[in-house]
Design goal:
6-stranded mixed β-sheet, Aldehyde Dehydrogenase, Chain A, domain 2, about 40% helix, about 25% strand
């Protein structure tokens, strides 16, 4: 392995392949590869691979960093977070370049939406803590106040899809609350986290307040979440991994939040703007369907099935598979051959089960990682393709006769992260929106987020809520201070 000062060049952007611990780059004797999904023959880098000893070192640094970061005033911490946001904006093009190559997300979307959202996350939480007013009231002869105390080192484990934005979404409230952090990015897309570490160092975080550790979950991630000095854990990923992390958190009685994917319904009623609904349904194929919030189960009112399908197919046919750096591209490559094989497995089992492949159901080009937009009409609501998250460009089609059946189908999986409803009726929007069991329900729109609103899932889609004060309360130890009235002066 190269020394800690070694950096690599990725299309003109300098990136460190090493960990960032205690304000310094740290090498590891072992490495793992990260490759470009758009050209799997292209190895981007050999990345430092953490282990249990490295995890122990990172937590030690975070404990020391917590003492420094939590002792700073809110104004001092916020000034550093604002500087980090400004640095993200200044380096947005570089971050988008690297993340596009590392995970194949559409570069245009990264530049216009996701990287700027990363800067906004830090500004938003700096604003929230700056403007926070402690709850203050009199009760039973005492004066009462609720205080948020920093909780301690927090482990943040993020997924391989939209890694930069999702990392900042989790890091910002933890840091704003006064906690030090250890970020463990997914091994399939680790590079933008390394860029973020560079910017955090430049912004002025004290040593150990901001740490990045790379590697496999079973090797370094498991050691991080098992360390009793860690006082908060925030995870986004699969329910299977979340169960393992939850067991580790329970052993140390550490609060744990998890966002675990979804199987969202996209419900279209006969009174909807059908073209808008069909266009939005076709948009669920973007980024190769690797979006946890996607409306992957199309639930269409029976009377409009044929008209909707005509419009939906027309919009779907406009997708362009290609290089994610090309503005004309709308359908990106899958992240990894193993993930594409997983998607193919779902479709093949659906075919063998007797579910009807309406269109798609195969790779666009043999040996490449692009998969055709696929629509499957299941023979039963119990079909695996309906009940399990595919996380690829694969949607299902079902019809319903009325509101009650639409709601029943929408709520028929174990997931409950999001839902989408298309209707022109205010009453129906209210009734069905309330009845759909999901953490976020959009009506006649999608992916519009107010960062102060709670975000999370029902069922196996997650535990806890992120966003606004909900995340800050999670990352704090809440104290009630009660003083007997007239007893102090």
């Amino acid at each position: 392995m190269h020394d800690a000062d070694y950096r690599i060049d990725i299309d003109g952007v300098s990136v460190s392949p090493h960990h960032f611990i205690g304000g310094e780059r740290v090498a590891s004797p072992n490495t793992f590869e990260t490759r470009c999904p758009m050209d799997w023959e292209r190895k981007l880098a050999d990345i430092a691979r953490g282990d249990a000893a490295l995890a122990e070192r990172a937590v030690t640094a975070a404990v020391e960093g917590f003492a420094l970061w939590s002792a700073m005033s809110v104004a001092e911490r916020c000034a550093i977070m604002y500087r980090l946001a400004d640095l993200i904006d200044a380096h947005a093009a570089d971050i988008a370049t690297v993340e596009c190559l590392d995970m194949a997300m559409l570069k245009e979307s990264l530049e216009a939406r996701l990287v700027p959202r990363g800067a906004l996350n830090f500004r938003n939480y700096a604003d929230i803590v700056s403007e926070h007013v402690e709850r203050d009231w009199a009760s039973k002869g005492t004066h009462n106040r609720v205080i948020r105390d920093p909780a301690g080192p927090a482990v943040i484990i993020t997924p391989w899809n939209a890694p930069f934005m999702l990392s900042t979404w989790k890091l910002a409230p933890a840091l704003a609350a006064g906690n030090s952090i250890i970020l463990k990015p997914a091994e399939w897309s680790p590079l933008s986290a390394s860029l973020l570490a560079d910017l955090a160092g430049e912004a002025g975080f004290p040593p150990g307040a901001f740490n990045v550790v790379q590697g496999h979950g079973s090797e370094v991630g498991a050691a991080l979440v098992a360390d009793p000095r860690v006082r908060r854990i925030s995870f986004t990923g699969s329910p299977e991994t979340a169960r393992l992390i939850g067991v580790a958190a329970a052993r140390n009685l550490v609060p744990f939040t998890a966002e675990l994917g979804g199987k969202g319904p996209l419900i279209v009623f006969a009174d909807a703007d059908l073209d808008a609904a069909a266009k939005k349904a076709a948009a669920q194929f973007e980024d190769s369907g690797q979006v946890c919030l996607a409306g992957t189960r199309l639930l269409i009112e029976e009377s409009i099935r044929d008209e909707f399908m005509t419009r939906f197919r027309d919009h779907t046919d406009r997708h362009v598979a290609g290089d994610s750096r090309d503005p004309a591209t709308t359908l990106s490559a899958a992240i990894h051959p193993l993930h594409l094989e997983r998607v193919e497995g779902f479709v093949e089992r659906a075919r063998n089960n007797g579910d009807r492949i309406v269109f798609g159901g195969e790779r666009i080009e043999h040996g490449k990682l692009w998969y055709a937009p696929t629509l499957i009409e299941p023979k039963s609501n119990d079909s695996e393709i309906v009940q399990k998250e595919v996380f690829g460009p694969v949607l299902t089609l079902q019809t319903f006769a009325g509101e009650d059946q639409a709601i029943e189908l929408a709520n028929s999986t174990e997931y409950g992260l999001s839902g989408i409803i298309y209707t022109s009726s205010a009453g129906r929007a209210e009734r069905v929106g309330r009845a759909v069991r999901a953490g976020t329900v959009w009506v006649n729109t999608f992916l519009v987020r107010d960062l102060t609103a709670p975000f999370g899932g029902y069922g196996i889609s997650g535990i806890g809520r992120e966003g606004g004060d909900y995340a800050l309360d999670f990352h704090a130890d809440l104290k009630t201070l009660q003083i007997l009235e007239n007893s102090v002066s």
